[in-house]
Design a protein that fits this description.
With 274 residues, this protein is of the alpha/beta class. 36% of the residues lie in helices and 18% in strands. The chain has 2 domains: 2-123, P-loop containing nucleotide triphosphate hydrolases (Rossmann fold), CATH 3.40.50; 141-273, P-loop containing nucleotide triphosphate hydrolases (Rossmann fold, 3-Layer(aba) Sandwich). The radius of gyration is 20 Å and the shape is globular.
């Protein structure tokens, strides 16, 4: 069982799993909200080898008696720190309680706080920690501030002037709120930019469509809340712009990690009002 905090991450994981398994007889089921419950129930009745899902839908299927965890030998929590931030801890504890005591548990997290370390210790015996990072941020990501002066111009004017520059080829713009993200995307569209947006109020098919359009370069700008800050692997993002300052340092690290991937160079800019 693989548990992800967002539907987008669960979808990405399922798609990568299919690539890895190729023509091998390994079958998987995706269990996420805003998708057909009946299809998921039908697939689960065929006893797939791997179940990928989000906590809410998995718990719902367990409570209905459809998803039985007695035969699972491994559980993977992806973006464990975000699970805590999004309030999934009680759902996760309940799901894990149904698993056999004899199992393998894997926890993936880009940032590991003392709270997460304590959580992991409560789930496993003699945990082994493996770290692949050498520093908080990649050296190939250039980081800078964009200082704003309200006397000179508006925040939107500054953003649009940056996006007109030739080197801003594929840009992920982060905002704090759903309404703010939608407003920024609308204003950019009215200025003639090819832009889409993604946030928690959008239907699942709209979120999938936004990511697809951005990945396939149908649009060159995606405005997003932190729902797009974790784990999403989108190639060739040249710039990340923090239109709104992230709430925590960990959020900042995850946001800027959407650029400079696969050893390419990237730029992260953060708007700061004087």
């Amino acid at each position: 069982m693989i548990i992800s905090p967002t539907r987008e991450l669960a979808l990405q994981t399922r798609d990568e799993l299919r690539k890895f398994s190729g023509n091998m007889p390994i079958f998987s089921t995706l269990c996420i909200g805003q998708s057909s419950m009946q299809i998921q129930i039908s697939q689960l009745r065929h006893n797939p080898h791997v179940v990928v899902g989000t906590p809410g839908r998995l718990k719902d299927l367990i409570n209905r008696g459809i998803l039985k965890l007695g035969m699972f030998k491994m559980i993977i929590l992806d973006e464990t720190d975000q699970m805590l931030d999004m309030g999934f801890i009680h759902d996760i504890k309940e799901i894990i309680s149904y698993l056999p005591a004899d199992r393998q548990s894997l926890f993936f997290s880009a940032t590991v706080s003392p709270v997460i370390s304590s959580l992991i210790s409560s789930f496993v015996k003699n945990p082994v920690t493996i770290s692949v990072k050498t520093q908080e941020t990649l050296s190939n990501i250039k980081q800078d501030l964009v200082r704003l002066d309200k006397k000179i111009g508006s925040k939107m004017e500054k953003l649009s002037s940056l996006l007109k520059q030739e080197e801003f080829k594929k840009v992920l713009v982060f905002g704090r709120t759903k309404h703010g993200v939608e407003r920024v995307a609308r204003d950019l569209f009215q200025k003639g930019f090819k832009v889409t947006s993604i946030h928690g109020d959008k239907a699942q098919f709209q979120r999938q469509q936004a990511i697809r359009m951005f990945k396939e370069d149908v649009v060159s700008i995606m405005v997003a809340t932190d729902v797009a800050a974790r784990g999403l692997d989108i190639a060739n993002v040249t710039h990340v712009i923090n239109y709104d300052i992230p709430q925590t340092y960990e959020d900042y690290i995850h946001r800027i990690g959407r650029t400079g991937r696969a050893n390419l160079s990237g730029t992260a800019l953060t708007f700061v009002e004087e």
